[in-house]
Design a protein that fits this description.
The structure holds two protein chains of two kinds. Chain A is of the alpha+beta class. Helices cover about 10% and strands about 20% of the residues of chain A. In chain A, the strands form two sheets. Chain A has a two-stranded antiparallel ribbon with strand order 1-4. A two-stranded antiparallel ribbon of chain A has the order 2-3. By secondary structure, chain B is α/β, with parallel strands linked by helices. Chain B has a single domain, classed as Thiamin diphosphate (ThDP)-binding fold, Pyr/PP domains (Rossmann fold), CATH 3.40.50. Helices cover about 35% and strands about 15% of the residues of chain B. The two termini of chain B are about 35 Å apart. Classes of the chains: A alpha+beta, B alpha/beta. At the A-B interface, helix 2 of A face helix 1 and helix 9 of B.
Amino acid sequence: MSVKITIGAINKKHGSSKEYKTGGWRTMCPEVDLEKCISCYKCYDYCPDAAIKKTEDGIEIDLDYCKGCGICGNECPVKAIIMVKEEK
Amino acid sequence: MTENEDLELFSPGHRACAGCGEGTAVRQILKIAGPNTVATICTGCLEVVSTGYPETAWEIPLIHAAFENSASVASGVEVALKELGKKEGVNVLAFGGDGGTFDIGFQALSGMMERGHDVTYVCLDNEAYMNTGIQRCSSTPYGASTTTSPSGKYSIGESRQKKPIAAICAAHGIPYTATASISHINDLKKKVKKAIEVDGPAFLHVFAPCPTGWRHGSDDTIEIARLAVETGVFVLWEAIDGDICDLNVTVKPKKRKPVEEYLKRQRRFGHLKEDEIAKIQAEVDKKCDKYGLPERG
């Protein structure tokens, strides 16, 4: 891949890291049980990768970016998120 | 807390390790700072993971400076904005890792505070030079094994105590200094808000565990940050106008947990024997006494 370097290496594509999907790093995958979710959004707050979206019924995990670290599962106060082995 | 609560100004796709505490810290800090923010970063994990050319994870204007001068570039940005008459409503944030703050960038940071620039400096502390391969730093705590302070037959790992960087910064008499942890997000956000609102320099010391260097599970990051606060290893406080004799401890655990609970979760402390743990506990007890934290439960 060739990259054209701009003068001063100025990068005007804000947020362009989204083009790279870190979901491929995952070895463990979060599974959400929305029946249990109390919409406290602790998982949303703690996620280092902004991979959790708030929704009307709770949360949704964006598997394009989730690296499978498991922080959400560990911090969930009602155990609504469990980590399972990623199937490839 | 603010209208920017749901804005993600630190985009996913960045290459931080799974479970990296800095990801959580920067996301939350930028939610408070908002889109009208100019940031500078120096060399360190944060730069490496978020600005791999031609990509960037940042949704705000960002300048990458060399290792030692996040603070001096931020000073320049602040002066330029003032000269152009554009400073009103714009926040200037300077980010540095612990290496870029405690060691390499310290004189630039000290100068920035002494000159009184209206900049909020955020130190993301993961207690060693992590992106180059876990070398010890003046932020590395006593007893931690790193690649340049390895534990072994004749070594207990790092032999020096952690530098009290926030107290040193407060001693400059700056309007706002605080320590914060990613485990206590509301406390962190309140402090970011105060730091940005004051006129003049502010320093935030943010505790951000590193699963790669501290050798703990990637899912344990927040729990370990919380244990650091609950054991008294990392005390959350704020000081106004550099008054460290009258600082405000913002999170006081009802009963302090024994420091062993924090140490035994991380393999960098895995080699420590009982007598060494007792020594660390004694140091923590002494520090907590000074901060008026409760007795060990």
